[in-house]
Write a structure and sequence with these properties.
- With 736 residues, the protein is of the alpha/beta class.
- The chain folds into three domains: 177 residues, no CATH class; 77 residues, Threonyl-tRNA Synthetase, Chain A, domain 2 (2-Layer Sandwich); 267 residues, P-loop containing nucleotide triphosphate hydrolases (Rossmann fold, 3-Layer(aba) Sandwich).
- It contains 22 helices and 13 strands.
- The chain has a nine-stranded mixed beta sheet. A four-stranded antiparallel beta sheet has the order 1-2-4-3.
- Strand 1 and strand 2 form a beta hairpin.
- It is extended.
Length: 736
């Protein structure tokens, strides 16, 4: 009997015990939800307060203060997840909070009972994350200046860059969007068609109400306020016109009064001047105006004497002064007394500088304070705090030396340049790191100043250059003329996508030589189809301009033989280069017979200029031509033979590794992409140039190219200089 009674009481006891356990289990789920929410909040705060200078999973070291609000653990977590996933690292705190919500709702039991149900959402999460990272790489590369890698992380680089290389940006975008929306559907179970159907239904259902509100309340209110605005504008214009009329009348009255006072003062001044006329006549005997002709002739003679006295023996060939205008002799010139040591020689053939377009006055430099403030605001919009150490304004762009207070990943300077260009509303911005912790930001000026060749050739750097072959390249960022010595470079490779830039650069080099060297000291060997036709019959030509590419290989072969002949001549009198040979020949000429003097004639420089290297590197002559060019670039410097190569074909088949190894001096103009820049310079940078002569100049011994703005030379200027030289001498061609 007791047993049956106890059995009857057991169900009630179990019900009471289960009722007590329900609040306990609910409380435990609440605690789990709170814990997961706090973990998600901690991870989110760690990501938001990420600082590039904190310790990371790829770097360590002593740090004075960890700025990440999550401490050392939060700093490492943020660095790792930003490195792997970019900005999509913010998905992981959300997923942690979502898991806590599932446990609170008791959904974890279903998931644990059927683990296979996690497969589809898991695939959706992976697809969403991967596609999102890829889209960030394709479209938001410029937003990654503060991240350890890129906006999409390493995952995005692997997916996005791979798709772009196969199907380009448009195809990659469409594919990644498809994967992204598919992943969201698999992850959340969302039906996009049902979503659009629901939005359309609610839109049609609410439209009558919205239409009624617009017609009865919003539009009358808007019309009333517009009327008030128009009336207020009329009142303001009326007040402004009245004030303007009043100011005009007051100003005109003051001007009339001041004008009467000026007239009275002028009459009094004229009376005083008439009384002092006697003294003015006496002063005229001692103060005589100098005519413009005297100003032109006398200072030029004095300048020439000073140069000859200070720099004796520097110029190895007689050179005529470069005049800014043709001097005229006075009408009554006294005869010059004969001089004992006067040399009666023909004036060297040097063109006058007034044949080139005269450079106007230099415009005012940009507002440095305003530009500095714009740069700080641009970096502030990217959440980067900077200090401006120095500003260097120039004719084309302004360079800022920036010290970033907020750490910046210098591996992503190209993305930083793109972001700054967007903020500053300019075409391109170039960013380089000239030393650790210091960035150079080159921003184009709103108004570009042209650079004239006449200004470069009239500069002190060019006029006083001791070399026989000075070449004016242009001006640097600060506006200083850049003149290099071709005998020391000694060969140049000019490359870019724009034919006009390349042609202008070659014309600048040729005119720089013509304004310093005579036909007796420099000879040109020009090879091109039609770009050099303006130089036909130039006295400095070695042979007529070569337009048939089939004759290029024999011409280069002759240059190789001439180089070897010159080395034999220099060895015969124990000299090692052309300068020493010509000087030694002058000293030994007195002891030579007439036959020896003719055999050991002075050597002139030979400048070989090929306008398009790709035209001669064809299948028929490629091997022989490249062999001769390589031999000349390796050995011809001391023999006085220099090569200038130009090309628009920016491929490794034209700009070969052998040519780049033997021609370290290169001028890179604007190119389309980073790959073409690497083909020319071995590094990126030329894709950020502005065009119109903007170049990167790199020579031997310098790992970092220098930015130079080339001068502008018109075809009319070249024609006038060549015509002037052709009228004064004829070419003396040689048979090669």
């Amino acid at each position: 009997m007791p047993t049956n009674h106890q059995a009857r009481r057991n169900p009630n006891r179990r019900m009471r015990s289960s009722a007590k356990q329900i609040p306990i289990k609910h409380g435990l789920r609440e605690l789990v939800l709170i814990g997961f929410c706090f973990v998600a909040l901690y991870l989110f705060a760690s990501l938001v307060t990420y600082y590039g200078g904190d310790p990371g999973w790829l770097r360590s070291g002593p740090v004075e203060e960890i700025r990440n609000k999550g401490g050392i653990v939060g700093a490492v977590f943020a660095d790792l997840f930003f490195y792997m996933f970019g900005y999509f690292a913010y998905l992981f705190p959300l997923m942690v909070g979502y898991i806590g919500w599932l446990i609170y709702r008791g959904r974890h039991r279903e998931i644990l009972a059927e683990p296979k149900s996690l497969v589809v959402p898991g695939i959706g999460f992976v697809l969403t994350l991967s596609a999102g990272c890829g889209l960030a790489i394709v479209h938001f590369m410029a937003e990654s200046a503060l991240l350890p890698t890129h906006a999409g992380g390493m995952l995005g680089m692997w997916i996005g860059d791979g798709l772009v290389s196969i199907v380009d940006r448009l195809g990659a975008t469409l594919i990644l969007l498809t994967i992204f929306f598919t992943g969201i559907t698999l992850l959340t179970g969302l039906s996009w068609l049902k979503l659009m159907d629901t939005l359309g239904y609610h839109t049609l259902e609410r439209w009558p109400t919205v239409k009624k509100y617009m017609s009865t309340q919003f539009l009358p209110w808007l019309i009333e306020y517009l009327k008030q605005g128009v009336q207020m504008t009329k009142n303001l214009l009326k007040i402004f016109s009245q004030k303007l009329l009043q100011w005009t009348k007051t100003g005109y009255t003051r001007w009339q009064t001041r004008r009467a006072e000026w007239r009275k003062e002028r009459e009094q001044y004229d009376d005083d001047e008439y009384d002092d006329e006697y003294y003015d006549d006496d002063d005229d005997e001692f103060v005589k105006p100098v005519s413009s002709r005297d100003k032109t002739v006398l200072p030029q003679d004095e300048h020439q004497e000073v140069r000859q006295a200070v720099l004796p023996g520097i110029s190895k060939t007689p050179q005529a002064p470069i005049l800014s205008e043709n001097p005229e002799m006075p009408e009554e010139a006294e005869p010059t007394p004969p001089e004992v040591n006067k040399v009666t020689e023909i004036t060297p053939i040097i063109p006058a500088l007034n044949l080139l377009e005269e450079a106007p006055h230099v415009a005012a430099s940009p507002n440095i304070k305003m530009l500095s403030q714009q740069i700080k605001e641009a970096f502030a919009s990217l959440q980067v705090e900077v200090e401006i150490n120095a500003v260097h304004p120039g004719p084309v762009l302004t360079k800022f030396e920036i010290h970033p207070i907020t750490p910046i990943n210098t591996n992503h300077l190209s993305e930083l340049s793109d972001a700054l260009a967007k903020v500053l509303l300019v075409q391109k911005v170039r960013t380089t790191e000239n030393q650790p912790g210091i960035l150079d930001i080159e921003v184009p000026n709103l108004k570009r100043q042209p650079i004239y060749l006449s200004a470069l050739l009239n500069s002190t750097e060019y006029q006083n250059h001791p070399s026989s072959l000075p070449v004016a390249l242009g001006e640097d960022i600060g506006g200083q003329p850049i003149v290099v010595d071709l005998t020391r470079i000694p060969h140049i490779l000019i490359a870019g996508i724009d034919e006009q830039e390349k042609t202008t650069a070659i014309n600048t080099l040729i005119l720089s030589l013509l304004y310093k060297a005579t036909p007796e000291t420099v000879r040109l060997l020009l090879i091109d189809n039609n770009a050099f036709s303006v130089y036909s019959d130039l006295p400095h030509l070695l042979v007529p301009i070569m337009t048939d590419m089939a004759h290029t290989t024999p011409a280069l072969e002759w240059c190789v033989q001439e180089m070897e002949r010159r080395y034999r001549l220099m060895a015969s009198i124990n000299t090692r280069n052309i300068e020493d040979y010509n000087q030694a020949r002058i000293l030994q000429e007195q002891d030579w017979s007439e036959e020896e003097a003719q055999t050991n004639a002075p050597l002139f420089y030979i400048i070989v200029i090929i306008n398009e290297l790709g035209d001669i590197l064809t299948n028929a002559v490629e091997q022989e031509a490249e062999k001769h060019i390589t031999k000349l670039t390796q050995k011809a410097r001391a023999a006085g033979i220099h090569i200038i190569l130009g090309t628009q074909r920016l491929t490794v088949n034209v700009i070969t590794g052998l040519i780049k190894a033997n021609i370290p001096t290169r001028m890179a103009f604007q190119v389309n992409n980073k790959s073409e820049s690497r083909t020319i310079l071995g590094q990126i940078g030329a894709e950020m140039l502005l065009g119109q002569g903007d170049m990167l100049y790199m020579t031997a011994g310098t790992g970092m190219p220098v930015r130079i703005h080339g001068s502008s030379v018109s075809a009319n200027e070249v024609k006038k200089v060549v015509t002037d030289l052709k009228n004064r001498a004829t070419p003396d061609y040689i048979n090669i």
